[in-house]
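Justification of resources, computational component.

The compute hours requested in this renewal are based largely on the per-chain cost of generating structure records like the one below. Each record pairs the submitted sequence with a full structure-token output. That output is archived, and it is also reused by downstream analysis tasks.
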Amino acid sequence: MGPGPAIGFLQRALNALNRNGADYPDIAIDRTIGPDTLRALEAFLAKRGPPAECVLTKAIDALQGAHYIRLAEARPTQEAFLYGWITSRIG
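The structure output for this chain reads:
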């Protein structure tokens, strides 16, 4: 999939987990790791404590799984790969 989509999933998850901006401001979904993304990640981990890393990983996995399902829905030829993608890539 590459780093761009993965970083986008991270950014989307951080925005969805910031309690409507109460913990830290939303960040742009620009698919690059910059200072705003790093600040949001640090704030999320500090605010939510030890379980935060596991929760964030699950959120990113969910976004990645939804991406693979969308691919299979949009291109039926990709359905042949869906089982393997989910088996090997979703935590």
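The mean pLDDT is 96. Residues 52-74 form the longest helix (23 residues).
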